[in-house]
Write a structure and sequence with these properties.
With about 290 residues, this protein is α/β, with parallel strands linked by helices. It contains 6 helices and 17 strands.
Length: about 290
């Protein structure tokens, strides 16, 4: 498993009874996680002195219960990047800390190349991967269907002093955007893709990962440059294994481009137990 181990402002303190105990800077949050099917006693006193806990509703969604004052927003750092944290209505905070291992991979690859690089970040969310690539020296095209998420990503770029770096912020349906890029003849040296299991585009377009992932990766192959660097495919869909995603990239990219492919789960180490919580899967093609 690939671990995100360089965090200082984030910590997964403990896991038990379907919940995570986490530190986000100085704020302690308790959030649900369906993968946590074990009970380990919740012995850490922070379980009883957290700032807030997210409660799921049986009707869908949920709400935050505050035990102490929680700011509407605050910032945490990763290396020299700064992210704005905002507790959202569906348990999220704007950062998936396990993804840092993929940010680091992309940044290291970009820094190793002594040439200008163009990176496409699809389903870019709040821009953490975008900022990592910008900081490494690449031009980035950031695409997400949510206007609010793209605005949040811009705020993160400002907080990280990267707002003047070469970047395009686009609110768009990712499939339609790639189709237009093919017609325009635009090319990218690296592609990062973190698609949702299910979602809707700005015009109400329905996205179902199992049905549309292969066609989308096929489209993305057509916007890859003549000397591409990497393709990172991430998923939180439980039915889509790392090996399946690796095979998909093998069929669509490795057979034609060579290079190598790999896949694995990504995860976070739990401080209290020393064990690792799996948090998703990533497949990577690299030259």
């Amino acid at each position: 498993m690939r671990l995100s181990e360089n965090w200082k402002d984030y910590e997964l303190i403990d896991t038990s009874d379907g919940e995570r105990l986490e530190r986000w800077g100085d704020i302690i949050l308790i959030r649900p996680d369906p993968q946590i099917i074990w009970s380990s006693g919740k012995k850490n006193p922070l379980w009883r002195s957290a700032h807030a806990r997210y409660h799921r509703s049986s009707k869908g969604g949920g709400h935050w219960e505050q035990y102490k004052r929680v700011p509407d927003r605050w910032t945490i750092n990763y290396e020299n990047l700064v992210f704005n944290i905002k507790p959202m209505g569906f348990k999220h905070t704007g950062v998936f800390p396990e993804q840092a291992v993929n940010w680091d991979f992309a940044a290291e690859k970009i820094k190793s190349e002594k040439r200008p690089l163009r990176i496409l970040n699809l389903f870019g969310y709040t821009g953490c991967a975008t900022l990592s690539c910008l900081n490494a020296g690449a031009f980035v095209c950031h695409v997400d269907a949510s206007k609010g998420m793209v605005q949040w990503a811009k705020e993160n770029s400002q907080s990280s002093s990267l707002a003047e770096r070469p970047v395009r912020w686009l609110v768009d349906d990712c499939v339609k955007f790639v189709q237009r890029e093919i017609r325009r003849g635009n090319k990218y040296d690296g592609i990062i893709m973190d698609p949702p299991s299910y979602g809707r585009g700005p015009g109400g377009e329905v996205w179902k990962l199992e049905e549309q992932l292969y066609p989308l990766v096929s489209l993305c192959r057509q916007v890859m440059s003549d000397d591409p660097l990497f393709f990172i495919l991430n998923s939180y869909t439980t039915g889509l294994s790392p090996a399946v995603m690796e095979y998909l990239l093998g069929v669509l990219l490795k057979t034609e481009l060579g290079g190598k492919i790999s896949s694995d789960e990504i995860g976070l180490k739990v401080t209290d137990t020393g064990l690792v919580l799996p948090c998703g899967s990533t497949a990577i093609w690299e030259k």
